[in-house]
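Just scan this pair:

***
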Amino acid sequence: MSIAPVPPGSPWNVPNLLTTARLALAIAVLVLIHFQSFFAAVVTFVIAASTDWMDGYWARKYGQVTKLGRIFDPFVDKIIICGTFIALVAIPDSGIAAWMAVVVVARELLVTSLRGIIEGAGGDFSATSLGKWKMVLQCVAIVAALLHLLSEAPPEWLTWTRVAAIWLAVGLTVYSGFDYVLAAARVLRGDERAT
């Protein structure tokens, strides 16, 4: 008995199923951090972050980019990154301060709002390489924070790695947000000239 292929343009394709799995993993990470199961949390987080690369690669390679995927994928990215930063604020010695989580969440809300305005008007506001590097650094910061929490006496190199990764992630978060604002301003100025 053969399995029927997914119809072209169907939202139930491999990338969207991977994104759905990532959402479940993101929720699991938050629960694991709450119960301070840091080893399970870091493993689950790494798996979840890996699926983000996989679903994007699959969608582009096999032409399975859908409207649902364009909305669902960044939404889940924000759940796992913003949610994990917020969850780590509640954990003593995580290295994540409340204001850092606020910066991360505020940047995501701002860029999402700008994307909605511009793409709603028919423009293109796809993620830039700077935005992708921002997420990579945020993931590194989260993994470093969780690994640091795993050890009762973390080595000095891990402590410094955690500090550097967190500050670099926050810095690039702010800078990439500013870069998106400038890009949005250019697009909107161009629209005004066109009209």
The chain has a mean pLDDT of 84. The chain is about 80% helix and 0% strand. Residues 14-194 form a domain with the Four Helix Bundle (Hemerythrin (Met), subunit A) fold (CATH 1.20.120.1760). The helical segments are 14-34, 38-61, 67-89, 98-120, 129-150, 156-194.
